[in-house]
Amino acid sequence: MNISRRRGTIAIFITLGVFLTGVAVTLNIGWIILNKRAVALAVLGVILFALLIAGVVLNTIFLVREIRRNERQNSFLNAVTHELKTPIASIRLYLETLQRRPTTEEQRQQFYNIMLSDSNRLLATVEQVLKAGELGQRERQLNRVAIDLEPMVADCIAITLQRHHLPPEAIVLEPVPGAVRLHTIGIPEDLRTAVLNLLDNAVKYSPKGVHVRCSLAITRYTWVTLRITDTGLGLAPNQIKRIFDRFYRVPGRDMVKIKGTGLGLFLVRNIARQHGGNATASSPGLGLGTTFTITLPLANPASLPPASPSLS
User: Fold this and answer.
1) Which of the following CATH numbers is that of domain 145-303: 1.20.5.320, 3.30.565.10, 3.40.50.620, 3.90.1170.50?
2) Which of 56, 89, 118, 120 has the least CB density, counted as fewest CB within 10 Å?
3) Following DSSP, what letter does each residue of 77-97 receive, concatenated?
């Protein structure tokens, strides 16, 4: 209901802007025709008319953008509220069960595992929101070190498999061609956040089965590229650019409602750009999966320490 009302509001203001523009055009042309001899006044009228039209157009554009921004922020608040409330309610329920009813050791261990999973989900949501605030800082040069990307990606895959209770074959990291070690210079925790967000996104948007393939390779001699390909819901062409916007979430399809805050891919692109690279997406179409690509500068081998510790 709220979405339909917002769309109705947007349509009303666009129609009003077009109507006012048409009225202004009609009045200005009529005034010029009636005052053909007053050339100076006609020129002045054209200038004022142009300023008036520009003001109406800019006001309409600004208003529509504000309505859409408010809509995205409301969706974000609703999503964050749900992501925070759901695990808290779950943890509370199991704690009350443990407190009020006798349980076996097997049941207690099961409850503990569920509560631990819910607390990890809660912590991940909080960290995601905090990370989005941190990325508002333009310069983050501290703690930049050489990072071996292959063990870092492998560690992120292991975390994702455990978090979503998936078998090892669900997410596979292909061997690096030539068995070379691919390093980049950056902030380890930020790059881990970016990779984990992409993996979580691939899992969430694969409701009929998780089959994710990851690959690392050198491109154009001075760049290292991480590709994460899933076989999930895919993307429409008009969504490929928007998915990296703050608070934007791909609408659910086929009765599939995807949980999330709309910050994950926004963080991915901003982290990649702060490291001198970029993040992009491609998809053959709806239902045909999606490939996300992170491109980062390849570290100069001469600048690496003789035995760079791997990130695990």
Assistant:
1) 3.30.565.10
2) 89
3) HHHHHHHHHHHHHHHHHHHHH
